[in-house]
Amino acid sequence: MPESRRLAIVERMNLFDNFHKARVLVIGDVMLDRYWWGDVTRISPEAPVPVVRLRRDTFVPGGAANVAVNVAGLGAEVILVGLVGSDPEGESLRESLEKKGVSPADLIESGERPTNTKTRVIAHNQQVVRVDREITSTLSATDNRCICDSLADHVTKSDVVLLSDYAKGTLSDPVLQEVLKRVREAGKPVIVDPKGKNFSKYRGATILTPNRHEAADASGLDPESDGLVPRAGVQLLEDLDLAAILITESEEGMTLFEKGRKSVHYDAAAKEVYDVTGAGDTVIATLAVALAAGSGFAEAARLANIAAGIVVQQLGTASITREKLESSMADASAA
Question: Is 132 an active-site residue?
Fold first, then answer.
């Protein structure tokens, strides 16, 4: 084995060893992902739709909660801040988080909103339909204040702040401004998985992780135009004064744009794709943990790409673990 390759492997293993020292604060739209598993044997006589005979149901954390599960799975300490409703789904989410090693202690119970819940009906390993229960309107002054008040100690005690925006209302303008203000004062990096066409609200962040279509919308470019990713990456990097931006491109991999450096493209790592649910959560979580452990943007993006390739080969909302990532890296090094 060439010496340069051996040293790279050693450095990566040292980085993995630092994962347990990393502390990541996750703020965003937490959800409960509920799965109803069954079989289809006939079409309904009432309408041309399949009749699913329910066999079992499962619950897993979704949205920002799944991001937190990914962070914990990589061995880092995670603090999760988000809103849940005063409802059975909120209790199920808390229980699911505890089973995954994430404390629900900092979740804030809202008396005005239900727990964001996505119910997926799965038959013969295929999704038949999804039912969403959510409120995406502006947060009340009370909910805004509760979230902002909870940030006082968490930001200063964290190595990286991660904002998981699913456009469900948690990351309102007041909350975003308060977070970014505290992050600047504390000198901590902030990573954002953005939503919407107006990325200017994230100005002050360190790195954003939009997908191809989100980057196109935010930069005002045609998503089908030639050279979209390089043009959008450079434009957003400059317009938002970011340190870096990582644009995910589904089966085409992802591209990192870093201030003062040439862009780096990473080919998709997955051999087969079964379900992309939660892949974006895995990307940003891996990126955050790697950066918190002392990695640079390029190595963190490379690890995030490999981690995403692992979870898309699983059905349903999946998460990464340090063991899976190390195993995949070892296989790649041996190839």
Answer: no
